[in-house]
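Tokens as discussed.
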């Protein structure tokens, strides 16, 4: 089972190196998209590894903006067809299982698409997030007064109508998809540029775009929950930064990965997770 890990990173090269070390496997490779806003030089040594490659077409990424989607699409386009699965994670994620276990787990479920697809209308644990796609959001505009303009647009214009007859679903942006599913996404978006235009005026569109396309396709019967643990208990749309106190919850989750971690905030949690995975090898 050959896995390409597509990693979106924007900080802390030492933490990213630790992530690569813990996911290293003979059948794994790493494609790293570095936020175009940052200096790539501190990360240069990582690309001396024979299994690690830069995503050459970099884009600027802002929280809840379209840049996250563009960075993923850029990575998809540069990953060759030799890989069975593409695992999309961030540089602040970390494995909860040894690399051998991860590869076996996915191989035993080959053909599944690991991407969470919850409804947006309030009937799931996600709550009612429909305003994120039904209202105009100028999150990608870097201009003064954009919030006043955004409020004006939503007062004078009717609710936005999605350009396709799709049931909208989503949740976490982080997922693990088969290579054919990824190619389907790329082809579908090339054929439907109106979707790109629509999502550029949504808030946090990365949590909808890929899941919705697959959910409304022939891949739907193969969709299962994603493989990553994430806690949203802090609210405000930000994932909780996980610490040593979260260790038991991480292990009980049964997931293969978790986010998010910060080496500057709590380095000990990395030691605890590494010690556990070493014992399981």
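Sequence:
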């Amino acid at each position: 089972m050959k896995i390409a890990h597509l990693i979106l990173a924007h900080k802390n090269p030492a933490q990213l190196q630790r992530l690569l070390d813990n996911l290293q496997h003979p059948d794994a490779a790493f494609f790293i998209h570095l936020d175009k806003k940052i200096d790539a030089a501190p990360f240069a040594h990582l690309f001396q590894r024979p299994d690690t490659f830069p995503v050459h077409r970099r884009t600027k990424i802002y929280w809840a903006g379209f840049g996250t989607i563009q960075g993923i699409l850029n990575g998809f386009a540069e990953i060759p067809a030799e890989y069975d699965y593409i695992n999309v994670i961030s540089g602040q994620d970390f494995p909860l299982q040894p690399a051998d276990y991860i590869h076996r787990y996915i191989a035993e479920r080959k053909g599944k698409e690991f991407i969470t697809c919850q409804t947006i209308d309030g009937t799931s644990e996600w709550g009612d997030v429909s305003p994120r796609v039904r209202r105009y959001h100028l999150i990608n505009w870097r201009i003064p007064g954009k919030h006043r303009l955004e409020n004006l647009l939503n007062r004078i214009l009717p609710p936005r109508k999605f350009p396709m007859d799709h049931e909208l679903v989503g949740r976490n942006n982080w997922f693990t998809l088969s290579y054919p599913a990824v190619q389907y996404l790329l082809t579908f978006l090339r054929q439907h540029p109106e979707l790109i235009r629509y999502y550029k005026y949504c808030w946090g569109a990365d949590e909808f775009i890929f899941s919705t396309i697959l959910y409304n396709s022939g891949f739907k019967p193969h969709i299962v929950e994603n493989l990553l643990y994430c806690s949203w208990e802090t609210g405000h749309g930000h994932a909780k930064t996980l610490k040593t106190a979260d260790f038991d919850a991480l292990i009980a989750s049964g997931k293969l990965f978790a986010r998010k971690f910060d080496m500057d905030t709590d380095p000990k949690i990395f030691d605890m997770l590494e010690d556990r995975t070493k014992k399981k090898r």
